[in-house]
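Narrative summary of target 7.
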Amino acid sequence: MNICAGILILGLSILSIRGVMAEHSDQPISPDWVKIQDKQRGLQVEFPNHPVEMNIEFPLQNTPATGQLQFLSYPSSNGLLAFSSFFSLTFNTQEIDKERLKTFFETILVPHFFFNPSIFQNHQVYHFHTAEIDGKEAASFQFSFKDGKVLKRLEGLAIVVNETLYTAFYMASDSDFDQDLYERFLESVQLPQEN
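Modeled conformation, tokenized:
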């Protein structure tokens, strides 16, 4: 699959309840980019440097959804690159729709990873388009929101494979959005095969 710094990952600590087998490859594709492989799920993604990793099992307090979330993030000089995989039996179809993806961001990602989740809701604009990745139905999405006087842009791709919602996205101020960095990041993502 070819799949955003206002997010802080809960003290930058790694929480591992089940332990996702993500390993840093000894041979990054280039001197600047690091390949991350998850042998348990069979996926791969590259970051400009070693990302911070979090693994969480749900439910958390006041969180109705159940499942496991793996979240990798790397703050770049002008934004944040992130990749998440959320396994849940609620994703019992390979289809992803506009409201389901928006709900995932608002109930799973934003409350647990943003300094101030209410900022995400301020003047939020959400765009969703269907896409195709390797012959599979996927979604291209974008959130725009105000952080003080700064317009932030979060853009990415999402797909469901094997009851897991995968998202890869980049977030930066609209004026600093690095399209080349974003596209390089998306091109690095390789998803597992369907069961």
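The domain at 10-188 is CATH 3.40.1000.10 (Protein Transport Mog1p; Chain A).
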